[in-house]
Amino acid sequence: MQRILMIGLGGLGTQAMMPLCQYINYKFTDKFELIFIDGDRYEEKNLSRQIFNDFDNKAIASANLLRTMFKGIKISAIDKYISIYNISEIIKENDLLFIGVDNNSTRALIEKRCLELNNVIVISGGNDYTDGNVITFARKKGQTIGKIFTELHKEIGNGKDKSPTEISCGELAKTSSPQLVLTNYNVASIMMNELYSILEKGKFHNEVFTDILYNSSRSTQEFKHKLKIA
């Protein structure tokens, strides 16, 4: 069974998780296993742009919610942040990664792990208040298809920010930037579009930029890569 890892259940992750489950439930119920990964907890302040019904760990709460709605999909949770200590155990060969983290340190760490694997697909979203982007790349038989994070954006590899595992809860709260649910939703939609394109059409765009103020999106280079589902 193919694994889809949703890393980060904040604004992007919670906007993407429902259509992801609906799509899989409609067409791939017995083909995919979903694994939600996040070390954070839902709080009252998250209600403005995140979907949840329990003030619990984000991965566990999201998995519990969606299991009640999509009983035919295998859904599990890992209540930890991705770190150098667990990434090799969590991200494995043939995984498909849906990434909604909000720091470059974790993106760079995930990129490094993926380059160690022969086969993996990465769909990663990020956004500021009204604009954002989605980066998609793949590894197939040890070869990289598309440009990776640090090739497209040098700042991702500069190590200037810290992952959630490297800072205190107080520091983490201070680093949170204001976000708009409409932008989260727009970027999550593009992430789903790329997944559909890979599964159904055998292609993806290396990067898509979007801006809700101009109601526009533009994509960069297109690559061919169709995921073979067992």
Query: What would you give as the CATH superfamily?
Result: NAD(P)-binding Rossmann-like Domain
How would you classify the helix and strand content by structural class?
alpha/beta
Helix-strand sequence: EHEHEHEHEEEHHHEEEE
**Residue runs with pLDDT of under 50 for 5 or more positions:** none
CATH architectural label: 3-Layer(aba) Sandwich
Strand content: 15-25%
Q: Provide a count of the helices.
A: 7
What is the molecular shape? globular
Number of distinct beta strands: 11
> How can the largest sheet be summarized?
9 strands, mixed
The CATH topology comes to Rossmann fold
How many separate domains make up the residues?
1
Arithmetic mean pLDDT: 91
Name of the top-level CATH class: Alpha Beta
Set down the secondary structure blueprint.
Blueprint: E1 2-7, H1 11-27, E2 32-37, H2 58-69, E3 74-78, H3 87-90, E4 96-99, H4 104-114, E5 120-127, E6 131-140, E7 143-145, H5 149-152, H6 169-175, H7 181-201, E8 203-205, E9 207-211, E10 216-219, E11 222-224
Parallel strand pairs: 1-2, 1-4, 2-3, 4-5
Antiparallel strand pairs: 5-6, 6-7, 6-9, 8-11, 9-10
Helix pairs in contact: 1-7
Describe the structure.
By secondary structure, this protein is α/β, with parallel strands linked by helices. The protein has a single domain, classed as 3-Layer(aba) Sandwich (Rossmann fold). The protein contains seven helices and eleven strands. It has helices at residues 11-27, 58-69, 87-90, 104-114, 149-152, 169-175, 181-201; strands at residues 2-7, 32-37, 74-78, 96-99, 120-127, 131-140, 143-145, 203-205, 207-211, 216-219, 222-224. Helix 4 links the parallel strand 4 (96-99) and strand 5 (120-127).
